[in-house]
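In this section we walk through a basic example: taking a raw amino acid sequence and producing a predicted 3D structure, encoded as discrete structure tokens. The instruction is simple. Fold the sequence below.
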Amino acid sequence: MRGGYLSEIEFLVAEDNDFARKIVRDVLKALGARNPRYARDGAEALNIAKNYAIDIALIDWDMPLIDGLEFANFIRRSQDSPNPFLPIIMMTAFSEHPKVIEARDRGVNEYLVKPFSAAQLLKRVQMVVEHPRPFVRTENFFGPDRRRRAKSNYAGEERRVAQEGDDS
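The resulting token sequence is shown next.
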């Protein structure tokens, strides 16, 4: 990876805990991010997202006023959303499987359990930058495709038929 990889990315970091926000700031700086924007709660994060061209949002789940799930829901589903396709990386101490599923179902791109390393954060950023998943819109969901595998061995009657020249 070339130097300055993250220098071209506009980050929004929403974290209510001063110490945790400082850690994320230090990690992003060490990885080459230039001027991330910071919010202490979800309401401030939404204001920043509405007023600046943000490329990636790193959002804590448990924040005052508007939590990370409410932030994701607004970004994905609101008519006033500044960018419904904004990559959202959820940072949280919640590691339980139902919480991961809930975040995924709200349209979160990546999930990062605290405490995390610089390498783990970089891996999530790389996933949204270098391997973005296509977005899906259904009656009850809008967000990145929840399936991670490019190929599936599913052969049931609901199996999508690959188009000629398609590798799926």
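Looking at the output, two observations stand out. The chain has one domain: 5-144. The chain has a mean pLDDT of 88. In the next section we compare this with other chains.
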